């Protein structure tokens, strides 16, 4: 994989194809490898770039002191795109979609289109009045984040990551994993804890999304945890040119479990980039 250097940290990224540039941002505890089938779909007509975010895949951890945030992922995306003139298509899933949303808020003129797959932009529900659905959903996620963070601090990443994997993939998902995969995921607990913090504390609010005036596809799974389903609906309602697509029977990891449907929807979105005729339903 090619690499670039950001403040002394080596960042790896996959590159394939030629044409309009598509930047793909992966989920927490993942890597650019999650985009293999989408890259195969797009590379015949697009230049596809898929970085490993800080501390994932073949990329180094984020350099320097201080707590990382979504702004750091925006800076990483800028660095990967440094040699790319003109606007690009941006696709993100989960934590990568939260980073993509922050990028779109700050760099709207840099985009041809935007695709957000279950963005974990929990900060959009932060501060919701007590008694509202959003307040309860934020508390649900906060409990999960606290468990992952405590387990990372205690040096017992397996406990927190077992909760994390079962939350996003359904009860028993952790126990069905190979022991070597469990061990690899357990080592990522400190980074996942930081992802939660970044996604929950970012200062961006819903009203800022109104400035993202590019065709946007928002995708969610019908069987996903309610917090990300709700965030997808909120984002699709606020973005000026968004449409919401729900994949029946899919969970949070739909780019992997329902790759054929997701890849086809993204390819069509990039081809047409049409403005929706009507607002999406919640």
In short:
With 282 residues, this protein is α/β, with parallel strands linked by helices. The chain contains ten helices and eight strands. It has an eight-stranded mixed β-sheet, with helices on both faces.
Describe this structure in words.
The chain has 282 residues and is α/β, with parallel strands linked by helices. It has two domains: 3-127 and 205-272, Alpha/Beta hydrolase fold, catalytic domain (Rossmann fold, 3-Layer(aba) Sandwich); 138-199, no CATH class. The protein is 41% helix and 17% strand. It has ten helices and eight strands. It has helices at residues 36-42, 70-80, 95-106, 133-153, 157-169, 179-187, 189-201, 226-238, 254-257, 259-272; strands at 3-6, 9-16, 20-25, 46-51, 88-93, 111-117, 216-221, 242-247. The chain has an eight-stranded mixed β-sheet, with helices on both faces. The radius of gyration is 18 Å and the shape is globular. The model is unreliable at 276-282 (pLDDT under 50).
Topology:
Elements: E1 3-6, E2 9-16, E3 20-25, H1 36-42, E4 46-51, H2 70-80, E5 88-93, H3 95-106, E6 111-117, H4 133-153, H5 157-169, H6 179-187, H7 189-201, E7 216-221, H8 226-238, E8 242-247, H9 254-257, H10 259-272
Parallel strand pairs: 3-4, 3-5, 5-6, 6-7, 7-8
Antiparallel strand pairs: 1-2, 2-4
